[in-house]
């Protein structure tokens, strides 16, 4: 296996964009990525395209990558479509990394796009609901939300009872991420909120109020991966890339399983990381991720958010992009959006949300749900040299 570097990145605005097509979003992300890398469409030797819900929302299934890249002049090469729930984009990146690391190709594109906005919101919620074992879904589902949020809510209540975390702690996650989102020009939301405003907003499902849940979003993101001889300064190296499914016996949380493997590959530990993007599909998921990534002991997530350790300027800033809660969560594109943020931080070009002297970054993307855990998790570690 050889070293792999990120040569270019691109991302669209994340927002509800009813007038834009998924092809349009994909094209913007790819074009900006190639420009960032100083490459053209003819240079791309293979492409991995992530998406999760287009088949339900737009009716486009099976060949999204091929038909989406064709107008950009990208064809005649391997184009592989990847679907892995909310981890679709990071899975596409993992496969692109494998293609370069094994020497199969020297220049590989990873891109993901998602169109979630639809006039019928129930269709959007139904699409998200496909990320669970559909045979377990009750027939009398409540209207106005995804069943996935019911599962996150139940897990959050259990976690809060065990850890001592409170609704105020969940609000603190929102406050931090909304603050960071205000500093991110592509974020869907961002602003200065108070605990009271968050707790008094509309209840979605106990214990989550509106801002504690990630929104419906349209957007796309991409990265171009290259072999060592094609890398340019600043060198952003992929230090580790791991994908794991939840163990059948549930003995180990899937985030912990994937992160431990990534730490071992990179020869690093949690204390070596300068900034992190985690999968905060709900506010409680961020606190749980702190613990499962080894940033603190079990039950210590609440102490990290209360003390400001994960704020900008804190010991280890988390979700500098605004996270899913503020930047937005276009299901199949989120993992690459996290990677874009990690690369910006390591390049030192993240603007007002820049982490000082960032050298090592981690992204944690998860997808689906079964029992009391995500069914998939993807971890990436990046380093600047």
Description of the molecule:
It is a single chain. This protein is of the alpha/beta class. It folds into two domains: 5-119 and 218-234, 3-Layer(aba) Sandwich (Peroxisomal Thiolase, Chain A, domain 1); 145-212 and 240-384, Thiolase/Chalcone synthase (Peroxisomal Thiolase, Chain A, domain 1). Helix content is 35%, strand content 17%. It contains 13 helices and eleven strands. The chain has helices at residues 22-37, 54-57, 64-69, 88-101, 121-129, 147-163, 167-181, 195-199, 254-266, 283-292, 301-307, 323-326, 334-347, and strands at 5-11, 46-50, 79-82, 107-114, 203-205, 208-209, 219-226, 236-245, 275-277, 360-367, 376-384. The strands form three sheets. It has a five-stranded mixed sheet with strand order 1-7-4-2-3. A four-stranded mixed sheet has the order 8-11-10-9, sandwiched between helices. The chain is globular, with a radius of gyration of 19 Å. The two termini are 19 Å apart. The mean pLDDT is 94. Its EC number is 2.3.1.176.
């Amino acid at each position: 296996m050889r070293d792999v570097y990120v040569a270019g990145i691109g991302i669209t605005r994340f927002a509800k964009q009813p007038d834009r097509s998924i092809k349009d979003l994909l094209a913007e992300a790819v074009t900006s990525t190639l420009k960032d890398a100083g490459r053209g469409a003819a240079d791309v030797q293979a492409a991995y395209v992530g998406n999760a819900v287009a088949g339900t929302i737009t009716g486009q299934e099976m060949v999204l990558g091929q038909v989406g890249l064709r107008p950009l002049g990208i064809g005649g090469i391997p184009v592989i479509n990847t679907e892995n729930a909310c981890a679709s984009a990071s899975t596409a990146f993992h496969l692109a990394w494998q293609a370069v690391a094994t020497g199969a190709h020297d220049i590989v594109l990873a891109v993901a796009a998602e169109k979630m906005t639809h006039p019928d919101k129930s269709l959007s919620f139904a699409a998200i609901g496909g990320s669970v074992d559909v045979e377990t879904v009750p027939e009398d589902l409540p209207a106005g939300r995804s069943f996935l949020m019911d599962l996150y809510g139940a897990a959050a209540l259990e976690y809060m009872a065990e850890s001592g975390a409170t609704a105020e702690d969940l609000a603190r996650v929102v406050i931090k991420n909304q603050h960071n989102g205000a500093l991110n020009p592509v974020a869907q939301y961002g602003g200065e909120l108070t605990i009271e405003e968050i707790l008094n907003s509309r209840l979605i499902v106990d214990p989550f109020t509106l801002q504690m849940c990630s929104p419906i979003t349209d957007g796309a993101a991409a990265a171009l991966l290259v072999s060592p001889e094609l890398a340019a300064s600043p060198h952003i190296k992929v230090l580790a890339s791991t994908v794991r499914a939840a163990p059948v016996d549930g003995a180990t949380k899937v985030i912990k399983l994937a992160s431990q493997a990534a730490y071992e590959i990179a020869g690093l530990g949690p204390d070596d990381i300068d900034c992190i993007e985690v999968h905060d599909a709900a506010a409680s998921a961020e606190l749980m991720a702190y613990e499962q990534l080894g940033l603190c002991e079990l039950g210590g997530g609440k102490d990290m958010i209360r003390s400001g350790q994960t704020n900008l300027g804190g010991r280890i800033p988390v979700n500098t992009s605004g996270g899913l809660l503020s930047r937005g969560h276009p299901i199949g594109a989120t993992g690459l959006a996290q990677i874009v943020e990690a690369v910006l931080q390591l390049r030192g070009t993240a603007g007002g949300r820049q982490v000082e002297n960032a050298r090592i970054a981690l992204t944690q993307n998860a997808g689906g749900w079964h029992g009391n855990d995500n069914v998939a998790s993807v971890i990436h570690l990046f380093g600047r040299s």
